[in-house]
Amino acid sequence: MRTVKVVLFSFLPLTLLFSSCGSSRNAKDNFVPFTHELFLKLEKDNVDLRQVQFYIDQELILSRNMGDTKVEVNQGVVKLENGKYINEVVIPALTPGVCENAENEKLMVSFEKGNNSLAFGLGSGYSFNQYVLYGTEWKNGTAAVTFDAGKFRARCGGCSDVASVTLLIRKSERDRMERKYRVVKGRTVNTD
């Protein structure tokens, strides 16, 4: 009997691990990438992009070196790393965001209130049709971005290249935007 209990308790953590992975996978199945075709359709139908709920597909970590002296930080966490203070902001996967501004097919999406929008636009290569994070000074899968009026280094929490961080929308929202329907009024018999 004791052996059965030991076996059951040893498999319990594995069962919880696999079920939690499966549920996060199922959660991501409810989302689709925001594409250029969808952007053009919304523009044609005069849909205000500020009314569309966006999400980010992967964890995004923004950090900046603040030097040797501790500086007041409005957003994020300050930690000491190699004798230097680092301001770090984490945006988890599937965090909701809103479009603050859209200009020339570039979207400025904010994941919290304040002056902290991140730029997203059409990607290149395998993601040319999807809206991905924009940045400058690309180096080893990271990029410089402007956030909270400062320059941060962006990296992906679960991937090797921050260029693959993509904007998503819910499938139901896409279906609502793409579905065309009309109500048929019916016909009556002409008695003349």
Question: Could you explain how this protein is built, in words?
Answer:
This protein has 192 residues and is an alpha+beta fold. 23% of the residues lie in helices and 35% in strands. It contains three helices and 13 strands. The strands form two sheets. Strands 1-13-2-6-7-8-9 form a seven-stranded antiparallel β-sheet. Strands 4-5-3-12-11-10 form a six-stranded antiparallel β-sheet, with no helix packed on it. 22% of the residues are buried.
Characteristics:
192 residues; 3 helices; alpha+beta; single chain; six-stranded antiparallel sheet; seven-stranded antiparallel sheet
Sketch the topology as an H/E string, one letter per element. Answer: HEHEEEEEEEEEEEEH
Number of domains: 1
* Beta-strand segment tally: 13
Helical content band: 10-25%
- Strand-residue proportion: 35-45%
- Determine the N-to-C terminus distance: 89 Å
What general outline do the C-alpha atoms trace? elongated
Overall mean pLDDT = 79
State the strand order across the main sheet.
1-13-2-6-7-8-9
